[in-house]
Amino acid sequence: MVLLGSAVNGIAIVIGGLIGLFAGKLLPERIRTALVPTMSLVTIGIAVPGMMKTENLLIPILSMVIGTFIGELIDIDGALQKLSNALQSKFKGSSVAEGFFTCSLVFAVGAVAVMGALDSGLKGDHNLLYAKALMDGTAAIAFAAALGLGVVFSSVTVFVVEGGIALLAGLVADLLSTSVINEISFVGSLLIVGISLNMMGATKLRILNMVPALVLPILFCQFM
């Protein structure tokens, strides 16, 4: 089922959000803090197998370099940050709206959401979205305790975005060779490691500006 990973992710946010509404403030800060690096390490472990499948290392190297160059020119990360700030400022007076827009951006926009949905659509592998569900569900507890009911509603955004990517990927899966999928997996795994390092506070990489690298293996595999 192509949408299974997206559905699990959305349900985890609902459960975490409801827990946060009723009991989140009772959860010690040190426990919430400890869970983030733990899940970051788990995510790295999930990413590692995807880095073993490349058939031509030059393809992911070129994809990362050129993709990051394109992303920095467009500044996807900066544009999203401006959108996030604008939405938070506009809906600051409404706790439901603020929680919805804040968590929609946090949970639905990012390389993990994209790569997880691609794995679901291209390979029927939902493991990355399952891991993301654990992280998002945990984070939803803290967000809901602070921002309220809107956090629960952000699950709809997550399901629509991830499900849409998964369905689209499923439609074009037959057009992509095993080599292309392997190179995309390698690049995506690198981005996932970067996200995990950011979550642990070890780096401040602009991962969204590297996302264009995900589509370049489709081009390079035709000539290399």
Detailed description of the structure:
By secondary structure, the protein is mainly α. The protein has ten helices and no strands. It is globular.
Uncertain stretches: none
How many runs of DSSP E, i.e. beta strands?
0
Estimate the global geometry from the Cα principal axes. globular
- Based on CA atoms alone, the radius of gyration comes out at 18 Å
**Quaternary structure type:** single chain
Structural class: mainly alpha
Cα distance, first to last residue? 33 Å
Largest sheet: none
The average pLDDT value, as a whole number, equals 82
List the secondary-structure elements in sequence, H or E: HHHHHHHHHH
Please report which band the strand proportion falls in: under 5%, 5-15%, 15-25%, 25-35%, 35-45% or over 45%.
under 5%
Question: Nutshell version of this structure?
Answer:
This protein has 224 residues and is an all-alpha fold. Helix content is 75%, strand content 0%. The two termini are 33 Å apart.
